[in-house]
Amino acid sequence: MSPPPRSDGDGKQISNLLLLAIPRQEWEQLHPSLELVRLKLHQVLHEAGEAIKSVYFLNDGLGSVLTVLPDGKSVEVGLIGKEGFIGLPVVFGFKTSPLRLVIQSDATGYRMDVHSLQKMLADCPVLEKRLQQFAMTLGMQSTQLAACNRLHDVEERLARWLLMSHDRIGGDTMPLTQEFLGQMLGTRRSSVSMAANILQKAGMITYTRGNVTIVDKRKLTDAACDCYSIIQNLQSNWQAETK
Amino acid sequence: MSPPPRSDGDGKQISNLLLLAIPRQEWEQLHPSLELVRLKLHQVLHEAGEAIKSVYFLNDGLGSVLTVLPDGKSVEVGLIGKEGFIGLPVVFGFKTSPLRLVIQSDATGYRMDVHSLQKMLADCPVLEKRLQQFAMTLGMQSTQLAACNRLHDVEERLARWLLMSHDRIGGDTMPLTQEFLGQMLGTRRSSVSMAANILQKAGMITYTRGNVTIVDKRKLTDAACDCYSIIQNLQSNWQAETK
DNA sequence: TTATATATGTTCGATTCCGTACAGTATTGC
DNA sequence: GCAATACTGTACGGAATCGAACATATATAA
User: Fold this and answer.
1) A8 pLDDT band (50/70/90 cuts)?
2) Could you tell me the CA-to-CA distances from B91 to A40, A126, B17, B75, B218 in Å, in that order?
3) For A23, A147, B48, B134, which has the most beta carbons within 10 A of its beta carbon?
């Protein structure tokens, strides 16, 4: 494989791992259609049930994939950071997504409109393959989250969630409200409040209005369920299998 | 697209929708590697974490995709019948699966060994595309099940589960124990016992040792959560989008 | 038939979580 | 500054579920 591109035309450093992994030739194809954008906290990139207009390669920051029920309740079923791609249904020929995609921390990424991607894919086999594999990996992550959300209690899940986000963001402080966490964990805010309190009193995290800081990652890992490490291993093992 | 093959060389009627959907040329390629097999109730086709040796196209019957936690508890994250394919990770170049695949009712299908499929895929673009799309559809099903299993209570989920299986099997009586249902729904057996009792007393189902019969589908549908119809719509809408 | 394994009904207290409400505190907008 | 908004702590009764145990009934095998 050719050496990966290091920066786009404007000198911006590229961090998205999928874009870094494709050969130069494919990058040249893609490049003109990519637009660097800033994505704000809580911005909704795709609304559940609606047509997908743009797709995104994140450079930094984090997005959450949510299943939303008719009554408005939601559960997180996936996390997408710089290792991934936002807009997977398009890769497989679908026009809409049943899932909501929300930005979890201020992010930057490359936006591309759907039609450009569709045209491009035929000429970019490596990218296409990588996108498909990412879809599969994300799917596996979501099945583990499904089990976790069914079988583990709020405190364990909260610890697991904080660790997963922490790993993908880099930086110990994250902009999070209890209400938001409730939507991720599929529980009500006051349950989050109590769980967060316990973690704080145990010296694992501190938080103020809208911000959570991890202060003792080791302790927090002990408080989390095994799903945290299981998901970590999933990703790394599967990356190894396809080399 | 060429007319689909109607039967294999031995005159056996093919019911698997993926096999029916591929052009004759691809079928000719595939055909010699397929072996018709019977799959028994509760047979485990893939064990979580192990290498995948064979893949399957079901003709009839039903398989469940399960996430299994270290403590042995499990949750169903997908259902695969004659519309689908068992062994998706292989399609994307992965060798193992983190999921368990269990047969839920006596089934028949075509088995193929992994290496044959891998060789074949390059020459069968239509099949490959269909498999990829099925993977995406199944992924979406699993996200809905994730939300359902988190947010709805046992009685609704049990009704939903019975309806989904019923639709995919054809036949009102299904071989099911409460213990098995508990593993599907991610709950303990005695919760299933109580929920099943309620549905029975309400005249929706009857059951004896190891068998459940649906007697009033309409009522049962009312007792199930919206997830039942949501998943139905998912599948049909998405099929429409890619035509 | 008898013994054994399997499947189901039911109970117990304990725990978690629910829905909801209200009070207190911090931030934002004017 | 003040008012309005947003975020958090906490409480309440009630519901659902848990883990575990025991009794009973049905099927299977010896």
Assistant:
1) low
2) 36, 15, 17, 24, 39
3) A147
